[in-house]
Amino acid sequence: MSFSKIGLFIFLLLGIALQANAQSLDFFGLKKKPTYHNHFAVILYDGKPIVKEGDGPLTLDFGNRGILSVATINRTTKEVLPTEPIGFKVGVRDYKSNTRWMYSEKTFYELDLNKLIINAEMGYELFFMVVDRKYSLSRNAVLVMDGC
Prior knowledge:
Order of helices and strands: HEEEEEEEEHEEE
Structural class: alpha+beta
Strand content: 35-45%
Radius of gyration: 24 Å
Helix content: 10-25%
Number of domains: 1
Largest sheet: 6 strands, mixed
Oligomer: single chain
Number of helices: 2
Distance between the termini: 82 Å
Shape: elongated
Number of strands: 11
């Protein structure tokens, strides 16, 4: 085989490979790839983060009344300070049947716990879903308890 035929063969294989991967290639780093989950967020109860040490679930007493929200946090200080409110949706997990259902299709920035508790019972788990993938809400569930 001559060098021209080998070069043509390599060029043909390279063309096929590039065509097959054309959608996912990033030539010379010019295409900016999206970054997800790089802003940390917490669930707030009356403007203060719901915090629990360890791996157990976050909890709220069944008798609590107030405002639930989700916000990014400033992690540069020792205190956990909310900085930017985030849109979220709420679901409920029925502890008896382990069924999850959406509380509402609406996106919330604040939610009155009184309205939410009407549809829940003690032992239900509220789970929060952020509507933008750039936020990380790792502790996204709150267990409604009787205070024990």
